[in-house]
Design brief:
Blueprint: H1 3-11, H2 17-22, H3 25-34, H4 39-49, H5 55-67, E1 83-88, H6 95-108, E2 113-118, H7 123-136, E3 139-142, H8 149-159, E4 164-169, H9 177-193, E5 200-206, H10 212-223, E6 228-232, H11 242-250, E7 254-258, E8 266-267, H12 271-279
Parallel strand pairs: 1-4, 1-5, 2-3, 2-4, 5-6, 6-7
Antiparallel strand pairs: 7-8
Helix pairs in contact: 1-3, 3-4, 6-7, 8-9
Bound molecules: guanosine-5'-triphosphate (GTP) and magnesium ion.
Magnesium ion binds next to helix 6.
Length: about 280
């Protein structure tokens, strides 16, 4: 039986409640491990729901108990203008696209939004962001090719008249010390202009990533406390089971999910949809 069919049979009792109740905790543990819940959490959950008459609602309730407290919507405080949001994450996780999504969302709430091209590593990165900015009609702040990203952020903050500034950063592997130091510098420099900034430090996680997200969060948190996660590419075939583990271990709010490549494909994290996604 395929993994998703197995999980479906466990969670929604497709095979009937009688048989679902007979599914042993080992089977359940295997299914949860396959879903990227991580061994420790899979084992814990499996033990906790073992012996329940009806394993299906018990498991659903357990996952809801873990996830629901961490769902949070993006909120900005314009009295702190410019309210600074930094997006970081590993290469290709969806940072630049998410900058556009947040700009679109916050503009639709009536805020003036500027985007800041601090990925000066590749010229194409600035081009990508400036295309988004012109499509969305928001201001863009950019530096020269290879300019120190921290100084681009500093200049943007000093000259910005925007309510919100969203800073795009270069993709970096969480185990690359030099690039992580560069990110730390950006945070330090931004904080020179406003000790409370960046007001939000968001880590973008790709839903297709498995247990490696744990390492990513640990390393990015060393740079500065991560205030929230956005899970990109939830529209793909990946179901993001690792999110449950992350939520459980780090207690970091989940601020939303990306569900496509265009700027309007961003929505709040829905626990219900997520659980359904696991079984579809
Ligand atoms: N289907 C889908 N594709 C996405 C989503 N978010 C981003 N992408 C695509 O993923 C690819 C990488 O997205 P980027 O936003 O460029 O990622 P990045 O983190 O800025 O990449 P680097 O700057 O190279 O590190 C692009 O092809 C995006 O269109 C999403 O939610 N769903
Ligand atoms: Mg990018």
């Amino acid at each position: 039986m395929s993994f998703f069919k197995k999980l479906k049979s466990v969670i929604y009792g497709i095979i009937g409640h009688d048989r679902a109740a007979q599914i042993g905790s080992c089977d359940l543990e295997d299914v949860l491990i396959e879903a990227d819940f991580g061994c420790a959490l899979a084992s814990k959950i499996a033990k906790e729901v073992r012996g329940e008459d009806d394993i299906v609602p018990a498991l659903k309730a357990k996952l809801e108990e873990i996830l629901l407290p961490l769902v949070k919507e993006i909120e900005v405080d314009p009295s702190k203008a410019p309210y600074v949001i930094v997006l970081s994450g590993v290469n290709g996780s969806g940072k630049t696209t998410t900058v556009a999504k947040l700009a679109f969302l916050l503009k639709s709430r009536g805020f003036s939004v500027g985007v800041v091209a601090c990925d000066t590593f590749r010229a194409a990165a600035t081009e990508q962001l400036s295309e988004w900015a012109s499509r969305l009609g928001c201001k863009i702040f950019m530096g020269r090719d290879r300019q120190d990203p921290a100084s681009v952020a500093f200049d943007a903050m000093s000259s910005s008249k925007c309510d919100v500034l969203i800073i795009d950063t270069a993709g970096r592997l969480h185990n690359n010390a030099d690039l992580m130091n560069e990110l730390a510098k950006l945070h330090r420099v931004v904080a020179k202009l406003d000790p409370a900034a960046p007001h939000m430090n968001i880590l973008i996680l790709d839903a297709t990533t498995g247990q490696n997200v744990i390492e990513q969060i640990k390393e990015f948190s060393k740079v500065r406390q991560v205030s929230g996660l956005i899970i990109s590419k939830m529209d793909g075939s990946a179901k993001g089971g690792a999110i449950v583990n992350v939520a459980n271990e780090f207690q970091i709010p989940i601020l939303g999910v990306g569900t496509g490549e265009s700027a309007d494909k961003f929505e709040p994290f829905s626990v219900d949809k997520f659980l359904r996604g696991l079984v579809e």
